[in-house]
């Protein structure tokens, strides 16, 4: 009888954990679609306010699922995007907040969401100014290389490496990674983000011709 009760308790705990994981991934999917809408479809004049509100929603998800790298990653991504549309006076602090969230996620599980924390950190380190903030191209390259080891065929991993190399003047290598990003497999449930990213890839390839 005691063994049966233990098995039942374990089954209930497992069921509860699965339900929580499903709830978290549903919340993250909502944030992902919200990010794609804000980044690719929202008028530029409205993007700062849009991402400020989305950042608050992302923080609620992180608070609801503490210690989960997936939630931290998406709060970090949305926070870094919010910084892009802020004034220079505000953007530095917001970008630092995004970095810290992504570093937390990396510490917990660097491979979570196909290495998205590594990809986002790489992007953040090369886009943030080096003179007045924490920008660091050496760290950017290292993070992007690590991300590619986790997901060598990923659209984001290859796009950001291509974009970074283009900025560094390494045109031939940049084109190589961008073409690989262009050929990346579709991500189920991320059709909106994939469409927007592919448009960015094509635009950058055209500029590099």
From TrEMBL:
<dbReference type="InterPro" id="IPR019734">
    <property type="entry name" value="TPR_rpt"/>
</dbReference>
<keyword id="KW-0732">Signal</keyword>
<dbReference type="Pfam" id="PF13181">
    <property type="entry name" value="TPR_8"/>
</dbReference>
<feature type="signal peptide">
    <location>
        <begin position="1"/>
        <end position="21"/>
    </location>
</feature>
<dbReference type="InterPro" id="IPR011990">
    <property type="entry name" value="TPR-like_helical_dom_sf"/>
</dbReference>
<protein>
    <submittedName>
        <fullName>TPR repeats containing protein</fullName>
    </submittedName>
</protein>
């Amino acid at each position: 009888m005691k063994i049966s009760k233990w098995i039942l308790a374990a089954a209930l705990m497992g069921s509860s954990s699965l339900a929580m994981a499903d709830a978290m991934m549903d919340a993250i999917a909502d944030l992902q679609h919200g990010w794609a809408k804000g980044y690719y479809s929202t008028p530029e004049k409205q993007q700062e306010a849009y991402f400020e509100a989305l950042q608050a929603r992302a923080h609620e998800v992180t608070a609801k699922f503490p210690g989960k790298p997936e939630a931290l990653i998406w709060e970090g991504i949305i926070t870094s995007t919010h910084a892009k549309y802020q004034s220079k006076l505000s953007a530095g602090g917001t970008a630092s907040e995004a970095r810290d969230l992504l570093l937390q996620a990396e510490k917990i599980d660097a491979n979570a969401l196909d290495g998205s924390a590594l990809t986002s950190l790489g992007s953040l380190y090369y886009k943030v100014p080096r003179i007045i903030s924490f920008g660091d191209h050496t760290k950017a390259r290292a993070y992007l290389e690590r991300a590619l080891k986790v997901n060598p065929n990923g659209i984001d991993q290859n796009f950001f490496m291509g974009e970074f190399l283009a900025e560094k003047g390494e045109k031939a290598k940049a084109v190589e990674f961008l073409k690989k990003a262009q050929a990346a497999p579709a991500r189920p449930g991320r059709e909106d983000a994939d469409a927007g990213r592919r448009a960015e890839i094509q635009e950058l390839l055209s500029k590099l011709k």
